[in-house]
Amino acid sequence: MRSGWASGAIALVLLLAGGCAQEADPEDARLADVIEASERSTSTGEPQSYGDDPRLDEMQDDCESGELLACDLLYLESPEGSDYERVAVTCGGTSDDEGTFCTPHPEIDESGFAPEGSAGLQPLGTQCKDGNLTACDVLFLIVPDGHELQDVAFTCGGRVEDGAFPDCRTALG
Predict the structure, then answer these.
(1) Distance CA 18, CA 134 (A)
(2) Which of 10, 73, 80, 123 has the fewest CB atoms within 10 Å, i.e. the most exposed one?
(3) What whole-number distance in Å separates Cα of residue 154 and Cα of residue 152?
(4) What are the backbone dihedrals phi and psi of residue 88, each rounded to the nearest 5 degrees, phi first?
């Protein structure tokens, strides 16, 4: 799994959401979607295709709408071999060349993080500070531990004090 922290955080949210479903307001469609997606994805262990995970669905929608950084985030967050990953590697259907990233910004090494001194980190940091929450999430996933931009990513560009787990798109979007 590429992003264990994200899967654990999502699982915790889904577990909590599922555990309080009987007490939830039936008008809360978003909670119902999360619970339904949780039930679908638990049969396979991980979300596999559109409709299995509202958060990944939103990334896929943005990716297919031309937000290439959302494609990069979808790639980093989606389970390997899933339909979500297939959408991401084709940059939302805009490329026949199945590469890893759709934007020139992220560069990662075999450890899954950007190498120290990677030119791609600074532009992501700037975009994050300027309000691009997708850039904040991509940055968090690839910034090496201890890097000066780690705090920028964790706080969604200085927008939250304690971090957004970090899922800036969902927390602040």
Answers:
(1) 27
(2) 80
(3) 6
(4) -65, -45
Q: Domain check: are 10 and 84 in the same one?
A: yes
Task: Please indicate, yes or no, whether residues 83 and 128 belong to a single structural domain of this protein.
Answer: no
Closest CA to 82 of 2, 152, 160: 2
pTM greater than the 0.85 cutoff: no
Region of poorest pLDDT, from 16-20, 52-56, 80-84: 16-20
85 & 131 share domain:
no
Cβ(65)–Cβ(92) under 8 Å? yes
Tell me the residue length of the chain: 173
Q: Which residue has the tokens 């699982």?
A: 11
Confidence of residue 164 (pLDDT cuts 50, 70, 90): low
Report d(CA 73, CA 89) in Å as an integer.
11
**Is residue 103 within 8 Å of residue 114, measured between CB atoms?**
no
Same domain as 57, residue 10: yes
105 DSSP 8-state letter? S
Give the domain extent around 147: 121-172
| Alpha carbon of residue 167 to chain centroid | 7
Closest to 9 measured CA to CA, from 168, 147, 133, 130? 168
Number of domains making up the chain? 2
Which of 42, 70, 89 is the C-terminal boundary of a domain? 89
